Amino acid sequence: MRDMTELVLGPLLRHVGERTATVWVETDRPCTVEVLGASSPTFTVHGHHYALVEIDGLEPGSQTPYQVLLDGQVAWPEPGERSLPDSVIHTRRDGGPVRLAFGSCRRSPDPRGEHGPDALSAYAHRLAEGSGQWPTALLMIGDQVYADELGEEIREFIRRRRGTDSEPVDELADFEEYTYLYRLAWRTDPAVRWLLSTVPTYTIFDDHDVRDDWNTSYTWREQMWALPWWRRRITGGLGSYWIYQHLGNMSPEERAADELYARVRAADGDAGEIVDEFAERADKEPDKARWSYTRDFGGTRLVMVDSRCARLLTPDRRAMLDDAEHQWLREQCRGGVDHLLLASSLPYLLPRAIHNAENWNEAMAGGAWGRAGARLGEKVRQAADLEHWAAFDASFRSVAGDVLAVARQERGPAPASIAFLSGDVHYSYLARVTAPDSGATPISQVVCSPLRNPLQGRFRLANVLACRRGMAWAFRGLAALARVPKPPLRWRLTRGPWFDNMIATIEVDGRTSRVRWEAAADGTTLTERGTADLSA
């Protein structure tokens, strides 16, 4: 019999403040987890054991190496693993530069190299070698795992567990399979595992964290809930997301006030049913859960927006965000900060041709060209993934009004920059709002995607063509024929598109904000591809 409790996954360094830090772990059996003198017992969900250790009393701006103890014995660093530096907690201090690295869409592991070099791994190697500036935080903006595009390792696990013919075929079925996928994504590469143990990480989901086209329309939801296996899939997806990703996004104060977290920790035995009930309710009644959140890094405000689960989809209404979520976002869009960053997994500003095509498709699927046109429009929507902000035109217009109000000092002193941070589309670019006049505050869209999962073949060619200026007019004509008014903003791409596996960094110093994109030249090296001043 084993004497030591072991780490299954982690440690993951999550929310970090000026004096506080949160370390997340999964262990192979119930135990007490200790980090820097702070401790927490594990809680159990579907036979898996987790803990979030909340450390307090750190010095602002300090660097503190740490170990993880399980039942009093050192479990991290793991015995014999000394090729990487110690895991260190870097606390924040107001003033000074802020660096937010971000990206999305990471397929892992990839033993055959089908998806190219991993930008996240290359970034980890650079930090481990001491040759890069340390980030304030890492933002993972969607598709941290792919539940519907499986690699050979997870396929083999599923074959051993439930055979080859059980539904869903070639997709995850439930919570247990999600736990294995997270382990593959975050433990397989030692450099990435170390990175996640020492850089504060904040996340939000996108569709592949659950399933391609997740919540694209009311029709899609009806189709999925008619499948006999969907309930286990959606509860497994959202329940595991709550544990593996969302809990660490919260501040200690937010977790202390979270009723679900309190119930799970107080459960007598396994809390799987509690989490499943929450997950199903969160899917069916999105206003009963909030996945969005805000974080302030000195004078920089980050608003992380849930543009997947919070959608309002009924036979009569469709919106990117339900009414409560729209109101919450409106309240976050205010001045009095140096820089306002709005992170959404889905780009708010797409290449104009794609925006116009999605405008047209939404109107067509909504009946602008009759019932037959509506049926065709729905098929095209699902086949071509036409479900970004542009496909929710009323929501797009509402957010445009909010950011323009902030830029024009209608909600307090104007920021020096407003930028949307996004992923999803599997290429990277910068778009600038050119009209209407937003005063002294430039408005930008910064996209960085993928970390590792590049577009190939005809999909890449289609997006190359869509980024050309002349392509926008044809789809604008179709949208006009469907009686869609012109967008309330005008914008154009000024950097990119780049189709490499990439990671980007927003660098803020006072009222100046810049972005840098870097491509993975190989598994350990990054090469700069472009820079831009977001505050000018």
UniProtKB/TrEMBL annotation:
Q: Which residues form the PhoD-like phosphatase metallophosphatase domain?
A: 121-454
Q: Name one Pfam family in it.
A: PhoD
Record organism:
Thermomonospora echinospora
List, for all copies, the residue spans of the domain called DUF7800: 4-87
Which SUPFAM superfamilies does the entry mention?
Metallo-dependent phosphatases
This one is known as: Phosphodiesterase/alkaline phosphatase D
InterPro entries, per the entry: DUF7800, Metallo-depent_PP-like, PhoD-like_MPP, PhoD-like_sf
